[in-house]
Each structure stands twice: as C-alpha cells, then as structure tokens.
Amino acid sequence: MSSAPPDDLTSPPAVSPVPATPLAPAAATAPAAGRGGAVTLLLGAVAAAALVSSGLLWQKLSSIQEQLARQSADAGAQAIEARTMARQAEELVRDTAARLSVAEARVSEVALQRSQLEELMQSLSRSRDENLVVDIESAIRLALQQAQLTGSLEPLVAALKSADQRIERAAQPRLAPVQRAIGRDLDRLTRATVTDTAGLLARLDDLVRQVDDLPVLNAVAQAAATRRLAAAAAAPAPGTTAPTPTEGMAWWQAALQRSWEVVRDEARGLVRVSRIDQPEAILLAPEQTFFLRENLKLKLLNARLGVLARQFESARADLAAATVALNKYFDPASRRTQNAASTLQTAQASIKAAEQPRLDETLSALATAAAGR
C-alpha cells in the first residue's frame, strides 16, 4: 500500500521531488500484507482458542453447578431423613425406658414375693437340726437362770451333758463345732470352784452379832476396865507368896507407898494418852456409837441380801464399806476387831470366787449353727 500526500499540502519550493519508477509501490506493499495476514490468523486462532476454552469452562461450570445442586438436594433429603430417624429413635427410647421401668417394678415385686415366700417356707419347714439347736439353746439359758438363783453349777453341768448326748445321737457334721464348744465349757465348769453359800451367810450373821461387842477408838472407860482385868489376871494366886516392895519398911512408909499407888492408878484411869490416826473417831460422841454400830449392821445385812440375790458386785461394795468403817472407828488393837477384819476379808474372797463361769463359747456356737453359717 502507498499513501500519497494530500492535495492541499505543498512541499517547500526549494526541494524538488524525486521521480519514482513504476515498480516501487508493489515492492513496498508485499511484506506488509504478509505480516497482517499472519497477525490476523494468529488473532483468529487465539480468539477461537479462547472461545473453545470459554465453552469448555462454561460446560464444566454448568456440570459443577448441577453436581452441587444434586449434592445439596441429597444433603437436604438426608437431613430430613436423619431428623425423621432421630425422632423415631427418641420415641423408641422413651418407649423402651417406659417398658424398662415397668419391667424393673415387676422384677422388684417378684423379688419381694420370692423373699416373703422363702421366709414363709423357712418358718413353716424348719428342719430337725434347727429344732435341736433351738431346744439346746433354750435348755442352756434356763439352766443359767437356775444356776444364778441357786448358786450351784449342777444345772449348767446337767444341761451341757444332755446337749452333748443329743448332738452325738443326731450325728450331724454341721453341729460338730457346737459339740466342741460344749466340751470346753464342761471342762471349765468342772475346774470352777463352788462357793459355800451357807457358810458365807453364817459368817456374815456371826459378824452382825459381834458388832455390839466391838470396842470403838474413844472408849476410855472400856479400855481402863480392860487394863484392870489384865492386872487382876497378872496378880499372884492366893496360895503363893510374892515379895512386895513394902517388906522391910516401916508401917507408915508402907501405908504411904500404898496410898501413892492407889492415887497413881486412879489418875491413870482418869487420863489416857494414845495416838489416833483417824480424827473422826475421836470426835465421835458417845451417843452416836449406837448409830455407828447399827449402820455397820445394815451394811453387813445388805451384803447378806446381795449374796442371796446373787448380786455379788453389790455385796462386795457393802463389805468394802463395812471394812472401811471397822478400820476407821473401831480399835485396831483389840482382838475382836482383828477377828472381825479377818472375817470380812475371808467373806470378800469367797464372794469374788462365787462368780459363775460364763458359757459364751457355747452360746455363740449355737447362734452360728442357728444362722446356718
């Protein structure tokens, strides 16, 4: 292609144009036309590729949209189905819980009825061994009461021997521990000492009778009389002659000596100096001695009643109180007081030995056998 200058434009007058030959325009336009076609083809190819890719992308996008629409529709349907199934499961759980509660109530009722039926059957159909155990326990407890009332071990020994014979005749291995326990308790009873209750009561009665003759600590007149009796006993016999300190003296000296001895004896009878460790005894008025003796008698009688009632703790307490009163208010140097104190100690030792042995081992074995263990 060639472009000619427009007509209205004129070149400067000093420059003259070069004349062109006829082949110059065709040679100049041939390469330009080839380049334009190539560019056009390239642009067309690019445009066609862009159109094809756009079509492919649009088709892929359409398929993706369709797939997403189907997936969303499926997800919605599955969500609806899941909600329906959850509702059905919740209703099923409620129904199952209700049925389970009803079943548990029925099971508890059946268990209660079964336990009541078992108790009724056990109470109605007690076996021969259980009857034997119950009879033996009743007999032993009755023998214990008889032994407590009588103070003798013979009822216990007889009851244990009878129980041993009955268990041996039954020949049940389940009752072998009971038989062994009965044998041990029998050995313990045979080794136990039996207290002479009649002798103990006789000693207490003798003590009650001796209370009126016991000298108190502040009995001055009685002590003086005791000394006079001792002096009279120490005097020589009438048929014997003993040297007297007045022999070889003048008559007036002998009379003066005898007068001095009489005055001295009377003064000694009026005044006595002795040591008393219990101030309450010296402050005791003579008219209160009667009540002191009566209180001591009451303590001894209470101890006697305690021995009769088999209340050994109470009897020991009363004897201990009587011993304290005897040592506190009565003369410990007197032979009668010493005899009474020794009798009280013997009575306390007898009461301590009078406690009966317990049959705890046999009773526990019977309880175990009755429980079926």
Short summary:
The chain has 373 residues and is mainly α. The chain has twelve helices and no strands.
Topology overview:
Blueprint: H1 24-124, H2 128-150, H3 154-170, H4 176-191, H5 197-210, H6 220-234, H7 251-270, H8 279-282, H9 289-308, H10 312-329, H11 335-353, H12 360-371
Helix pairs in contact: 2-3, 2-12, 3-4, 4-12, 5-9, 5-11, 9-10, 10-11
Protein model, in words:
With about 375 residues, the chain is mainly alpha-helical. It has helices at about 25-125, 130-150, 155-170, 175-190, 195-210, 220-235, 250-270, 280, 290-310, 310-330, 335-355, 360-370. The chain is elongated, with a radius of gyration of 68 Å. The model is unreliable at about 1-30, about 220-225 and about 235-245 (pLDDT under 50).
Major pleated sheet: none
Helical content (DSSP H or I, runs of 4+): over 70%
SS-based class: mainly alpha
Shape: elongated
> Which stretches are low in confidence, meaning pLDDT under 50 for 5 or more residues running?
1-28, 221-225, 235-244
Number of helices: 12
Oligomer: single chain
Beta-strand portion reads: under 5%
Mean pLDDT: 76
Listing every helix as H and every strand as E from the N terminus to the C terminus, the arrangement reads HHHHHHHHHHHH
How many beta strands in the DSSP annotation?
0
Terminal Cα separation, in Å? 132 Å
What is the CA-atom radius of gyration, in angstroms? 68 Å
